[in-house]
Amino acid sequence: METVALFGASGVIGQGVARALQAQGRGYRVVGRSMKGLQQQYGADPRAELVTWNPEDPASIRVAARGVKTLVYMVGVDYWKFHLHPQLMRRTLDAAIAEGVERVVLIGTVYPYGLPRTERVTEAHPREPNTYKGRMRKEQEDLLLAADAAGSIRGTILRLPDFYGPGTERSFLYRAFVAALEGKRAPLIGPVDMPHEFVFVNDVGPVVTALMDEPRAYGRFWNLAGAGVTTQRELVKEIYAQVGRPAKMMTMGKGMLRLLGLFQPFMRELVEMHYLLTNPVLMDDSALRGLLGPVHKTPYAEGIRQTLAALREQKQARANPVPVTATP
């Protein structure tokens, strides 16, 4: 059976792709910086091969890619280090090509599209990023697409909107889930009544595995839209309704982000991306559905239910840790 390597396997998207491969009975390699973290997440799965890498070391990247047919690239960087995206992609591509990897699937974002020119954005929309982060993501994509065009390796890109669900602590909605369970006010970044879309994180893995197995997918990029157009306010109302409380929220605007950014690097970096809340990029994924057929999308109410259940389970586990017994 072919070897699939998940670079950046410790993130929530990587975990979702791993679950999809597990459901298909397929073996896979998980690649991350920390063996301890990989063991915690994947050590119990006999189909998982655990490999560490140092993304700064080309030799280490080659070892991680050795014997691999398909490489799924989900490597994240700190929000204030986006200049690393094209650098890491270049090193990974060089290593993958040298090791004879056949295919690379890059998990991308809406950032390279820039300001939307149409209500719904298809893959034909110009890639004209209006932010530094968008330019770095576009440069990352261009490296893969150029390698595909040159015949060095096959490459494809799956664009995701904002996502939410179990484990997505960087989601716009994560703090609203926690606040609802604690009976507190949900901190949101406004405006909260503009159209927006979110994809449930557990829906992504099956799409990635279907895309990587489809020969026609390569040489271009594909949109995966959310489960429908909604607003932050509507989703927060649903979150609070499911915990039996009236919705309470506080909204931060761009000015507050700038102020918080004086002390928090992540908030500082959100300022340039604020346009996504005032000029939302709503994607059209009819091309992807034409390629793969029906794409399952968990309705928002069900995704919220599952996320709340996971947070309750996590809270209970912290309150009642399993005792560790010494081995005689």
Automatic annotation (TrEMBL):
Residues 6-223 form the NAD-dependent epimerase/dehydratase domain. GO terms for cellular component: cytoplasm. One of its GO terms (molecular function) is aldehyde dehydrogenase (NAD+) activity. Coiled coil: none annotated. InterPro entries: Epimerase_deHydtase (IPR001509), NAD(P)-bd_dom_sf (IPR036291), NAD(P)-dependent_oxidoreduct (IPR051783). This is NAD-dependent epimerase/dehydratase family protein. It comes from Corallococcus sicarius. The lineage of its organism: Bacteria, Pseudomonadati, Myxococcota, Myxococcia, Myxococcales.
